[in-house]
Amino acid sequence: MKRFNSVLISTLLVFTIAPLATATVDTPFNGKDLSGWKFKKPADKSKWTVGVAEISKDNPKLLTVNKGTGDLINNLPVAKHRQSVDIYSEYTHGDAVIDLEVMVPKGANSGIYVHGEYEIQVLDSYGKDKAPGPGDMGAVYGAQPPTKPLYKKPGQWSTYHIEFRAPRFDVSGKKTANARFVKIVLNGRAIHENLELKGPTPSGVTGKEHARGPIMFQGDHGPVAYRNIRITPIDDKCESKDKNTLRVSTFQSDVTIPMGQILYSHPVKTIEHPLMAKGIVVEDGNTRYVLCAVDWCTMRNLTHDMYRQKLADAVGTDVSNVVVQCVHQHTAPSHDGSAQVILNKHKNPPKFRDLKFLDEVTTRLAAAAKASLSKMREVDRIGTGQAKVDRVASSRRIMVGDKLHGRMSSTKNPKLQALPEGFIDPWLKTITLAKGDKPVVRLHYYATHPQSFYRDGRTSWDVPGIARQRLEEKEGIFQIYFTGCAGDVAMGKYNNGTREARAALAERLYQGMAASAASTKLVPLGKLTWRTVEVQLPSKTDDKHDKAKNLAIVADTKVKDYDRVRAASRVACAERLAKPIKLCSLEIGDIHIVHLPGEPMLEFQMYAQKTLPEKFVAVAGYGLGTPCYICTEESFKQGGYEPGASAVQPKSEGILKTAIRGMLGVE
Questions:
Q1: pTM listed for this prediction
Q2: Bridge partners of 87?
Q3: Cα–Cα 20 to 30 A to 206, which of 25, 267, 279, 525?
Q4: Model confidence over 423-435: pLDDT tens digits?
């Protein structure tokens, strides 16, 4: 609505709502038809319908209605006012939490009328994030502009989370308390808090205030679509003064690649275990955050970006609030969608990665995360535990005198097995989120390359997946496993590549996980702080990483497919490293979780823990895989496999350590 009238609003600082105190979630729109909805007069002008909405290919100001269900659509044939009418529900509510999604075409205008009387503006305000006005998206109509909104492009779905307290009336009908928007969250960002409305906004259903009312959508100003309308009624008993609560949901999805597609290096011949993506959505009342661990070897460039962006869109948050880390099994894909895009620009491109499958698998995962929102649970406790893991991790780099010995994930060489265990972090750390004394989810962190053997065409979640699944079945608690800084740590001392060795490794890792979980001590939640830090890791500039030379290899159809793929990946990584990487950390009270890119050496994990020695610091590596190995400057002097396989320069050590301090909140 673009007519501006004065609505008196004042700020309150003391009222909160805990929406999960009730299990009831109402859906006034069934997604199939318009039953349960009414129109404002003249009803015969209504253009409201049900289908699947998308922006018209012929006119970006209009919508196209496709066959299907799920979307409530105001399908105006022209972008002109007064050609349709407002629609409101027969369903009514009092105090409530309202969650919904809305899509507007270019220049479109609508409004969400809570109780049918208090309008929150819906408008195409893309590009106005820095200076929104009182009529822009998220404004409380005509008076209060939103604070620091995140606007999406026309045609993209935006999410609203609205916490509403209805006006109060005494037995005579006299109003004793004004209506309040306790909180309004748009696309994962809180844009209003504790706004008191002294009266209804114009053009509501009745123009009067009531203890209960419907939800109404403005339809006389332009085309618009709404979906996933969920209303959680809140009664007085559900009000909470406790600020130290979070809402959490768990999700998982099968991310196994199809038969014949490439794993780390060989095509899939058999599926021993399904590959899984497992994650949580954490909501602090203002913003949603996503932590996800995926049973893939690495994700670079477009692949990692697609995972994060789809998860962000699915749960209604900004992509900077989403972390996706690989577990790093080698019986899984090492995936670079950008490399395939580069290959596809040339003749006879190698079929390195199936971009259609990438789109499908990320869409499934996003759908699982979105579905989990309807099952969010309140947590009020957090716990930490740790236990030593016996005979699993060992150093991949052992110096004997001045000579470097490389011991990888498995070896039958008795001399290499006899070398010392070397520099490892023996502690497996566990973080548990719980309601009272009942755990909801456990997050485990341990630093070692997780594969026992590979290159035989088997898809497997390998040692960490075996241990993870066993503990989940035993406890009945959702378990997520993150691999720490394992760039120079593997299982080689204790693994000869046999099935018997893998079974023993999985057993010992399971025992460590179980002991860590059993040692958990739960305490009340502390304050949640999410930090993002930008880091620029300098790309190598030697001949091997020269962009022009690698592009020439990509274009040469006489070159082997393997070499063309490697060259395309080097080009893609160099282009991505030219831009900053955003790193994220999560702090809850005295507990810190640091998320790092690439394959960082163990030194970075130990540095993070030494930076805050009195705190509980867990570290996950294997986020954006673009840098490949992130090594210490000393290791470059020593030589060996890891520095040679790194895509970044030695000075990256100091740069990343500075970023770690920033993520830990240390000046």
A1: 0.70
A2: 39, 217
A3: 25
A4: 999 999 999 999 9
